[in-house]
C-alpha cells in the first residue's frame, strides 16, 4: 500500500506541475480544480501506442497516423536535434475536438496583449482552460471589463518536458505535413523555452516546425506533398502579412491621443473593413481557398490579431538567421539557446539579421 501511495502522490505532483506550467496563476480553487482534472483525464485515458496498434478495433487511419508519428519522432531525434525520447509514445482519445480553450485579450484601443503570470515560465499572453464552459465564463468577465477578447480551441500543447506528452485525438486528423509541423513545433518548446517571452518561443517553434516538416518530406521522397506544403506556407504567410499590416494600422490609429473614443471606434471599424476587402481580394487570387466566411465567424479585434502576431511577428527574423547559419539547424538552435540569459528587449536586438532570407 505504501508503494501505491507513493506512485499516486507522484502522479498528483506531476499533474500539479502541469497545471502550474500550462495554466496561469489564479486564486480560485475552481481554476486549479479544472486544471488538475484536465491533466488527470489526459493521463488516465492514455494508452501505449503499441497497445493501440495491436488492438484489432483500431481504425486503419489512426493506425497509419501512429506509425507516421513514430517515424517523425525518430527523425526529430536523428536529424533535427529535438528531444523526442519518451514523448508521444502513448495515445489519448479525449472524445472532443480540442484539448484546451485559450483566451487572448487586449484593451479596446491598444494592440498590447494582456498578460498572465505563470510559475516558472513567467509572463504569457494567453490563458488556457481544459473546460470550455469555464473559458467562456472567463472570456465574458474580460469582455465586461471592456477588453477585446478572442477565445479559441487548441488541438495541442507542450508540458515543456516536465511530463511525457501523449498523442491526442484532437490533432491526429491532420494531414502528414501539418502533423509533422505540429510534432516538431511542440518538441522545439521542450528544447528551447525562454521564460516570459511568448513571441520568441512561438515564432521559433513555428520556424523549426516548418523547416523540420520540409526536411522530413524531402527525406521520405514525398515531392508532391512537399510542393503542396510549400504552397500552403506561402499562402499562409501572405494572409498573415495582411493581418499584421492591419495591426500596424491600428497601432498608428490608437497613438492619436487627440481622438475621441467615438472617433477611435469609427477608425477601428474602418481599418477592419479594409482588412476584409484585402483578404477577399487575396481569396479571389487563390481561387476561393481561404474559407474566409469561416474565419470571419469569430470576432476580429485587437486580441484576434495578437494571436497571429504572437506566432508570426518574429518568423522572418528567425528564417533569416537560419539562412545565415547556412541552414544548419543545430547551430541555429544553439544560437537561440544562447540568448536565454538576455532580457527580451536585448534579445530582440540580437535577432536583427545581417542579410534577408532568400
Give structural notes.
The chain is mostly helical and 358 residues long. It has a domain at 2-174. Helix content is 59%, strand content 9%. The protein contains 14 helices and eight strands. It has helices at residues 2-22, 29-45, 49-54, 60-79, 132-144, 176-191, 198-219, 223-254, 261-285, 292-295, 302-312, 315-324, 329-337, 344-350, and strands spanning 47-48, 90-92, 100-107, 116-118, 122-124, 127-129, 147-154, 167-168. The strands form three sheets. Strands 1-2-8 form a three-stranded mixed sheet. A three-stranded antiparallel sheet has the order 6-3-7. Strand 4 and strand 5 form a beta hairpin. Helix 8 runs antiparallel to helix 9 and helix 8 (223-254) crosses helix 11. The protein is globular. Residues 1-27 have low confidence and may be disordered.
Unreliable runs: 1-27
> Which structural category fits the helices and strands?
mainly alpha
Tell me the span between the first and last alpha carbons. Answer: 63 Å
Radius of gyration: 21 Å
Number of strands: 8
Largest sheet: number of strands, sense, barrel closure: 3 strands, mixed
Number of helices: 14
Shape: globular
Q: Helix content range of the residues, please?
A: 55-70%
Q: Estimate the mean pLDDT confidence.
A: 88
Strand fraction equals: 5-15%
User: What strand line-up does the widest sheet have?
Assistant: 1-2-8
- Run of helices and strands: HHEHHEEEEEHEEHHHHHHHHH
